[in-house]
């Protein structure tokens, strides 16, 4: 029970990687506040965690880039548990598009969700964590596309690289408060969304050196390490979890 009595917020957690991180935290004793844009999805996810793990999980729906939703998440933690130990800014969107015709509307939307949402959630969390004697941990979800070019993902990849620089910069801002900040950069991962492509597993198994794409548990296990007491002296870093793909960077067909 490495996270017993820890209070965590996980955004973008109705399914996929975010849900598995929340489920894993609850399994190891944490109180978890789950967020997702989809109200029905996040309430089902929280109920599942409470039932399966006998956990303490609260669902808070809403756009994770909306300042009022960010405030609601942090207030929920403080009002119910008087502290906030872990924040995982996982919410994000992927808007594919050719650079030469990428629309301003798509550009500003992806910047708002992927960057502004993560930035201001970290800000709100840090303002609470600095009041606590033992600080806290913040984790951003980046991507291998922040390291290697990927067709039609110029704007998306830019947001993910920016999150990694944000984590580095916050070392200067937050270390004195005992707050560590890191990133996790998943590669191809089997989720409800990627399984909509029937060729996804086959394609990424072929071009991933370890012979398969990641499972959500691979990502969650890494995330839990980075927000655990075992990683308190690690900050400003990005850990890539991609089965070796960025070492070879073979593009999918």
Structural classification: alpha/beta
Strand content: 15-25%
CATH class group: Alpha Beta
Rounded mean pLDDT is 96
Main sheet overview? 7 strands, parallel
Quickly count the helices.
8
Measured between the Cα atoms of the first and last residue, the distance is 43 Å
What is the CATH architecture annotation?
3-Layer(aba) Sandwich
Rg, Å, rounded: 17 Å
* The CATH homology group name: NAD(P)-binding Rossmann-like Domain
Number of strands: 9
In helices, the fraction of residues equals: 40-55%
Largest beta sheet: what is the strand line-up? 3-2-1-4-5-6-9
Note the overall shape. Answer: globular
Domain count: the total is 1
- CATH topology-level name: Rossmann fold
The low-pLDDT segments are none
SSE succession: EHEHEHEHEHEEHEHEH
What does this structure look like?
The protein is α/β, with parallel strands linked by helices and about 250 residues long. The chain has a single domain, classed as NAD(P)-binding Rossmann-like Domain (Rossmann fold, 3-Layer(aba) Sandwich). The protein is about 45% helix and about 15% strand. The strands form 2 sheets. The chain has a 7-stranded parallel β-sheet with strand order 3-2-1-4-5-6-9, with helices on both faces. The protein has a two-stranded parallel sheet with strand order 7-8. The model has no long low-confidence stretch (mean pLDDT about 95).
